[in-house]
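Quarterly update from the structural biology core.
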Amino acid sequence: WCGIEFDESIVAGGDFGPYRQSDRKELYVKYAQELIDNGNAYYAFDTTEELTALRTEAENNGDTFTYSSANRDGLNNSENLGLEEAKKRIANGDAFVIRFKMPINYELVMNDIVRGEVKVNTSALDDKIIFKSDGMPTYHLANIVDDHLMEISHVIRGEEWLPSMALHIMLYKAFGWEAPEFAHLPLLLKPKGNGKLSKRDGDKLGFPVFPTQWVNPETKDTSMGYREEGYFSQAFINMLALLGWNSGTEQEIFSMEELIHGFSLERVNKSGARFDPEKAKWFNHQYMLLAKNEELAKMFSSILNEKGVEFENDKLIKIISLVKERATFVKDLWGQSSFFFVAPTEYDAKVVKKRWKENTPDIMRSLVEIVSNIDDFSSENTEEIIKAWIQEKELSMGAVMNAFRLSIVGAGKGPHMFDIIAIIGKEETIKRLNNAIENIKR
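Predicted structure, tokenized:
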């Protein structure tokens, strides 16, 4: 839906598959074993209960327990037990994980495209689990192996992964592989207050957070997406691209081609980007204006069909050209154009009070006579004739035209009056004028 094409994927295929981690288990086992063999990882047999006890003890002493170079030699692992003993325990069926052996006191200097130079001493880092007891890798190992084997040049992800960058760089070093370039993008922040944008914010404030509809697999709760809310996919992509990035110009509307050629990680902001639901709507409105009327007519026709409204396609295209400036979504077109298809049965009370005077019915009766005698019912011709009649009778242009609009539309606003009656036709115009004369009461 977004129009973002994958070079490779489960569906598209490619030269570096398989593309499901569950199908790559043997690869992860192989590389985890390689880290064990070269001394960069070790087996750990600590139970959940043992680790919980260590954390509790540390908390009681006002400290925080981390599994690291500071204590690994005294814990239940192959660094302490020895590799042969560890292999015996594994052969006996003991549950284990594999932890990365973080080097001691190594000053690591890294570069992030967005954040610049980042330094960390490895003694401050813990020995992360890279292979779980269920026989599957953690994200840390899997993403390193996959990115290397798939020849990934750039790892672009959210800033919440920045703390893991050091571990990932050290894993590349442990394998003797060249690391890709890293870019950690700023978080999307909630519209008001502090903190990152969440599904809960969208539910609370009434805007989507997913591109398309998402169903929670556990609760079965459904969250509407931008597609279901009526956003154009191009507007969604355009809005998303400008959350945290700018081109360095005043331009805000970009085609996909312009984004592809103009986007650069160097122009991504370090600070979080605050999401503005109203700005998202603004983008959609801009794409509404840019859309071809013929394409909008196809989309709008399904709404008309659901309402049982008959229409002529040529007239529908003309109607859309008159009202789309007032619409944000295709679904808004009905609210802006319903009077083209259905005569008003109610009249705006405020407009009636202000515009429908005692002599208005008589003026509208005279207008019916004028309209009845017009043969060329084009917008230009009817405007010329009716305005000439108003001037000839020395009537107030505003008073007549506002009452005329109220009779035809049922409200005080809308497109150019003479464009409206040219589309609905002379017979319908006369009918609506007579209905207004009959039914509007001050």
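Residues 277-290 form the longest helix (14 residues).
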